Amino acid sequence: MSARVALLRMQEDSLLSLPAPIHSYTPVQGVVFTAASDPQPEVRCSNSEISRLTLFRVTTVADSKLWNELVARHHYLGYKPLPGAQIRYFVKHGNTLLAALGFGAAAWKVAARDAFIGWSPDERTAHLHLVVNNARFLILPWVHVPNLASRILSLAARQVVRDWPQLYGYQPVLLETFVEQERFSGTCYKAANWLYAGQTTGRGKLDRHHRQNVPVKDVYLYPLHRHFRQVLTPSGTH
Question: pTM score, two decimals?
Fold first, then answer.
């Protein structure tokens, strides 16, 4: 999908001419809400009472539909397909579903992140795939467990390190996420040892006129490799 988007943009910019499509493409329609995503009985307890958390990777069509539905219904950003290489998870305690997470391709340009890494435009182009974006994190609204979010984030980081190479054949070295300032303070990311790298400019990724058109977000990063800067900037001296 990422390659398809890139090729279509290159065609729009008259950099190449694509042949006519062989197959017609029908956009995915909106997510239909069902009883599967209805509010459930409250889960209200201490963190210590959640003795074991398990991350289950979304692999089946049924699980994919449920993940999409829960995110569309209960996450403030709603659902849209994750870009590029991706992994989605459910988080459960026994048979009780607590949360949903999604990881996908990193943002193309983020000034605060790029300054934190210290890479050049060429290095970013060559190594951006080694950065993975935590695009969605939803603790279901009927779940009320102190410190659960930071615990899930720590578990998810370890899980992504194991799962990503199995799916895509390479090891990511850095996670990124964006926290909307007006809604959240980023407490769970700080508690899970994510590093604050700065703020976005408030420009959408397609903004060509330098107008602030989206909410300003805090940028948080989580190294998955001790020497992530050396990996991402092999020509630099860090």
Answer: 0.84
Dihedrals phi, psi of 201, to nearest 5 degrees? -85, -10
Q: What's the pLDDT tens digit per position in 75-85?
A: 999 999 998 89
State the residue range of the domain holding 76. Answer: 2-39+53-232
Do the Cβ atoms of 224 and 170 come closer than 8 Å? no
The conformation of residue 48, written as its DSSP 8-state character, comes to: G
Q: How far is CA 154 from CA 52, 158, 188, in A?
A: 13, 7, 10
Distance from first CA to last CA of the chain, Å, rounded? 34
Other C-beta atoms closer than 10 Å to the C-beta of 49 total 10
Is 173 within 8 Å of 130 (Cβ atoms)? yes
Residue 197 within a domain: yes
Q: Convert the pLDDT of each residue in 27-65 to its tens digit.
A: 456 789 999 999 999 999 999 999 899 999 999 999 999
Task: Tell how strand 131-139 and strand 174-180 pair up.
Answer: parallel
CATH code at position 228: 3.40.630.30
Give the Cα separation of 32 and 34 in Å (integer): 6
d(CA 206, CA 203): 8
| CA separation for the pair 115, 8 (Å, rounded) | 29
Number of domains in the chain: 1
In angstroms, the CA 77 to CA 88 distance is: 16
Distance CA 153, CA 189 (A): 7
